[in-house]
Recover the amino acids of this structure.
């Protein structure tokens, strides 16, 4: 019997530490054809190198790309720009799908994108906040920083899903479990005031609300599952934007029931599990799944 080809679109690769990159690898290991996206030309050389060295490694180890998984392609997409998303979904992705997998469907979308203007993530020294109160950073957020953060970190999930909808599979019966999925990366700062997380906290709350809203709309109409994975602290480029991140990471590990943080591979494997819908995950939608060593379940004292 011919193996079912599955395709995933993973948005938000900046470098080899990106949770998007780990998610792509995890999906490749599950046999997916994977298209990763990066924001702009600045990251193209890095992403190109990563893809080429991954492919070389597969060939060297005798796996062959096909055996380990499917193809791995990379495309640009700036989610703050409708035209960029439109070009991705109406020109670039269809071309890759047609040339490489002869399919017109996307089985999984992974949204691994967040951005806040750097000044809104810094210790405030502006006159709008009291400099003796270093934690009063959300109150100093400008209207435009709030809008940008929510636009890139939350609205982008709606925009990507909206444009990808024609490629997401449509179920034919309510018992059909071969459905497609959308999975977003989030953080506990959505429901708790996390130190130095500032405007990103409300943006993640918004993102999680979007996940629930999309799940409720797209389940009945398209059989599409929509979930979020809430990761504990992982050293990445985005994490570097959070002040005192090393301390946050260490304190999280000390207080987590497992006395450690989740590693990026573990986060990515849960992303892939939810995406694939195997072993019971086909009934999970509208949920935020925590992969954080249990930190979110306890009161740290
Ligand atoms: P990362 O490697 O820096 O990934 C963030 C990605 O968002 C980057 O590729 C970044 O591209 C991209 N991005 C920002 N603005 C964009 C835009 N306008 N269009 C397209 N892409 C854009 O960091 P990461 O930690 O893996 O972050 C991935 C996701 O995981 C984020 O949603 C983050 O909030 C979430 N998360 C991270 C942690 C953690 O501790 N690392 C914990 C929980 C959740 P540029 O670099 O080009 O801006």
């Amino acid at each position: 019997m011919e193996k079912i080809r599955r395709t995933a679109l993973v948005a938000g690769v900046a470098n080899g530490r990106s949770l998007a990159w780990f998610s792509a690898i995890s999906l490749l290991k599950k046999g997916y054809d994977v298209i990763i996206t990066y924001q702009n030309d600045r990251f193209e050389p890095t992403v190109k190198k990563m893809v080429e060295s991954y492919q070389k490694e597969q060939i060297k180890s005798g796996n062959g790309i096909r055996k380990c998984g499917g193809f791995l392609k990379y495309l640009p997409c700036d989610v703050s720009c409708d035209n960029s998303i439109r070009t991705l979904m109406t020109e670039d992705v269809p071309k890759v799908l047609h040339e490489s997998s002869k399919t017109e469907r996307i089985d999984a979308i992974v949204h691994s994108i967040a951005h806040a203007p750097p000044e809104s993530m810094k210790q405030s020294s502006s006159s709008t906040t009291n400099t003796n109160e270093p934690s009063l950073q959300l109150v100093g957020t400008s209207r435009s920083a709030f809008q940008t953060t929510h636009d890139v970190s939350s609205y982008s999930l709606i925009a990507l899903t909206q444009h990808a909808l024609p490629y997401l599979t449509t179920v034919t019966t309510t018992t059909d479990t071969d459905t497609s999925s959308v999975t977003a990366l989030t953080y506990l700062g959505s429901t708790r005031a996390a130190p130095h997380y500032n405007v990103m906290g409300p943006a993640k709350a918004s993102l999680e609300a979007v996940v629930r809203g999309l799940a409720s709309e797209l389940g009945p109409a398209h059989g599409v599952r929509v979930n979020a994975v809430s990761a504990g602290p992982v050293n990445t480029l985005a994490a570097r934007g959070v002040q005192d991140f090393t301390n946050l990471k260490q304190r999280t590990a000390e207080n987590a029931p497992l006395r450690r943080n989740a590693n990026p591979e573990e986060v990515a494997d849960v992303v892939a599990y939810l995406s694939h819908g195997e072993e019971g995950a086909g009934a999970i939608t509208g949920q935020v799944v925590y992969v954080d060593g249990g930190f979110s379940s306890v009161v740290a004292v």
User: Anything to note?
Assistant: The pocket of NAP is lined by residues 12-14, 18-20, 39, 43, 77-80, 112-115, 152, 185-187, 231, 233-234, 236-239 (CB under 6 Å). Residues 125-132 have pLDDT under 50 and may be disordered.
